[in-house]
Amino acid sequence: MKKKDFYFKLTTKFKKARLGKITTSRGIIDTPAFMPVGTIGTVKGLFVDDLINTGSQIILGNTYHLMLRPGTKILERFGGLHNYMNWKKPILTDSGGFQIMSLSKFNKIDKNIGAIFRSHLDGKKFILSPEKSIKIQKSINSDILMVLDVCPKLTNNRKTLNNTIDISTKWAKRCKIEFGNNKKKALFGIIQGGLYKDLRIDSLKKLINIGFDGYAIGGLAVGETQKEMFKTVKNITNYMPINKPRYLMGVGTPADILGAVKEGVDMFDCVMPTRSGRTGLAFTWEGKVNLKNSKYKNDKSPLDSKCNLRELNSYSKSYLNHLIKNNELLASMLISLHNINFYQQFMYEIRKSIKSRTFNKFYNRYINLFY
Amino acid sequence: MKKKDFYFKLTTKFKKARLGKITTSRGIIDTPAFMPVGTIGTVKGLFVDDLINTGSQIILGNTYHLMLRPGTKILERFGGLHNYMNWKKPILTDSGGFQIMSLSKFNKIDKNIGAIFRSHLDGKKFILSPEKSIKIQKSINSDILMVLDVCPKLTNNRKTLNNTIDISTKWAKRCKIEFGNNKKKALFGIIQGGLYKDLRIDSLKKLINIGFDGYAIGGLAVGETQKEMFKTVKNITNYMPINKPRYLMGVGTPADILGAVKEGVDMFDCVMPTRSGRTGLAFTWEGKVNLKNSKYKNDKSPLDSKCNLRELNSYSKSYLNHLIKNNELLASMLISLHNINFYQQFMYEIRKSIKSRTFNKFYNRYINLFY
Q: Which residue of chain B comes nearest to A300, CA vs CA?
């Protein structure tokens, strides 16, 4: 069977909210889509077949983490991350920019060279140039690659942000050249500009001039308020190309996602469902449930009585409370799986509501549930 | 459907090795049987439905651990451990004797009262009498209960061992009375006597006088050599009732089990497959595989190419090496599941070889593999 070219189709809209479909050589992605994060080649605590059963159609791999462990040599030996981790569906890789800002030590941006940093694991020095980032993402063999950007910490300093945009734009160009011409894969540009509308538009225009298969909103999920995030997203989506996927990086709670979908975003990724799963925090249709709370000690009800995936509805909150308090592996396994499954159900309901033009109702019902 | 009475049927023998079937109200157990250990109500790192798919027909719960967490009140609320942890098949509970010896602090044996000890978790004082142990096991609602015994550390002191037998015998009687008359459940006696044949026989005879539904060999797996263990088992199985299940407590490696089956033992339990799983040690038909070893870094082969349970044969040793080195949950999940599955396959092959009278061949092939 001939592998399909990367392609985005906008199916329908409800006001700004969009329903779409991304075609890749490894499968379809219905948008708005949530991408579970598989940091170093595993979505923490989930079996791959369970992940598929949650309805996940694409996962994210972290270039920064994967270049450190297991490294590109091993990934190349396996023909990429898909074979290595036994995940046959599409993979999007970030460029490493965000982790260099948030995780690595002594990071320095040299606009001509790239990012220079020391590994957060052993202090080893690395240079990540735009070309190198793309090469690593090719070794990972991901389906959607991201340009290397400079991702600043939250700041109101326009000079810093302007400088970020300048370097990011130059690097984006170099990434595009390194990416070359490959219709089976996609390269997304990343919009910077902090919380400023004019800077965001400036960054976007420069990226559109280069031309990408999709556009991401970067530099958010770095500590701004939800209101600031929604406003920034609202300001920029009005200017983003209609016929390309829009990806809000690193976001967020179900409510964050809902609010951004309302403004026309198509793709999301976040560690929240799995990270929360490991600390006993569950996302449900009734809101957040902190299973460590002793009020659940005698609670016989499951997190979701309708969910029979891996018999999740056969486990009481009482039992989960017992497991999480005693640091049992099964707690992380059950709650992480529940959370990923909930996120995918939530996305499914979002898509359904756009299609049936009941998005407003859905939005009003859930936008304030996850505080 | 009427619940079935507890019943053991010896199907066939090959020399001393026995093939049998235990009937319980919650299902059949083919013997020789391996019981995965579900310490506080979870076989560490395994989903219940996976556990069933490994062919596990019974698991073990630890009375000592369960009385501390979640405690009998919660277990009673759920009608026992089966409902609480969503495991519908039989459960055997130990009596707490072994953990009081090995885990608790400041433990003291008062032959008239019981075991007095402090919790290894918070130092809280507990008294576990023979009656209390049975009552807790009834709260757990286990299918096979064990008498509370005094489990001494490894010793050659005959006086100590004699004293142990005296107290254990008295407690066994009290347990029998507390257990009462319940044909749906079983109560097993526990033979003590260290490595001495005459003491073991003395202990066994006293237990037979009281009369139990099965007989366990206790006080082993406490640091003796495999040779000493095999000899002790060999010496006592000759005297054990033919028509009752024989259970060697806390044993062991696949080879330990194989050697004890040769001497006529029917039941085993051990934390080894799951504990090893969490440290990256796998049991395979080619022997032990320490997945932390960097020689597996580039090894594309799976642990068992024939095993498609949860796609286990789709994960390379290279990938497992990567996961275990980085403390990923999925490493514990995959390797623990593999190990439990291997143990159950091993038991299946043992049973098949007894039936087809090829046990000797199987024995010779695998008895030295797991060093």
A: B78
3-state SS assignment for residue B341: helix
Which candidate, B191, B327, B314, places its Cα nearest to that of B246?
B191
pLDDT at A30 over 80: yes
Which secondary structure element, helix H or strand E, spans residue A45, and what is its range? Answer: none
Determine which one of A94, A202, A256, A266 is catalytic: A94
Nearest CA in chain B to A296: B74
Test mutation, B329, B332, B336, B340, chain A, max A CBs within 10 A: B329
Cβ-based neighbours of A318, under 8 Å, separated by 6 or more: A296, A297, A298, A299, A300, B70, B74, B77, B78, B84
Cα(B82)–Cα(B85) distance, integer angstroms: 6
What tokens appear for B33 in the block? 């049987």
Residue of B nearest to A314 (CA): B86
At residue B285, does pLDDT exceed 80? yes
Does residue B32 have a cis bond before it (omega within 30 degrees)? yes
Establish if B65 touches chain A: CB-CB under 8 angstroms: no
- B245 three-class SS: coil
pLDDT digits (tens, 9 = 90+) for A126-135: 899 999 999 9
For chain B, say whether A316 makes contact (Cβ under 8 Å): yes
Q: Is A5 an interface residue toward B (CB < 8 Å)?
A: no
Residue bearing the bigger pLDDT, B126 or B273: B273
CB nearest to B297's CB, from A74, A85, A300: A74
Residue with tokens 């093939």: B19
Name the residue of chain A whose CA is nearest to B42's CA. Answer: A330
Please report where in the chains the tokens 């033979």 appear, as a residue: B191
pLDDT in tens, B221-238: 999 999 999 999 999 999
Task: Domains for chain A: give ranges and CATH numbers.
Answer: 62-244+252-261 (3.20.20.105)
Is the CB of residue B46 less than 8 Å from the CB of residue A327? no
In the block, tokens 């080893």 appear at A124
Per the CB < 8 Å rule, is B300 touching A70? no
pLDDT more than 70, % of chain A: 100
Q: Is A30 a catalytic residue?
A: no
**Distance (Å, whole) CA B51 – CA B34:** 12
Torsion A292-A296-A300-A304 (CA) sign: negative
Please tell me the predicted confidence (pLDDT) of residue B1: 63
Instruction: Give me the residues of A, 266-285, that contact B with CB < 8 A.
Output: 278
**Which among B322, B327, B328, B332 is the top mutation candidate for probing chain A, defined by the most A β-carbons within 10 Å of its own β-carbon?**
B322
State which H helix or E strand residue B28 sits in: strand B27-31
Distance CA A278, CA B329 (A): 10
Give the pLDDT score at B104.
Answer: 76
Is B269 one of the catalytic residues?
yes
Q: Are strands B91-93 and B144-146 parallel, antiparallel or unpaired?
A: parallel
Confidence band, pLDDT 50/70/90 cuts, at residue A53 = very high
Tokens for A107, please give them: 């990071």
- Angular region, B310: left φ>0, alpha ψ -120 to 50, beta rest: left
The tokens describing A231, both together, are 């406003």
Q: Using one digit for the tens of pLDDT, what is the confidence trace for A56-97?
A: 999 999 999 999 999 999 999 999 999 999 999 999 999 998
Instruction: Please answer whether residues B220 and B189 qualify as being in contact, where contact means their C-beta atoms are separated by less than 8 angstroms.
Output: no
Residue A3 confidence class, pLDDT cut points 50, 70, 90: confident
At residue A1, the pLDDT reads: 62
- Pick B319's closest partner by Cβ from A45, A85, A322: A85
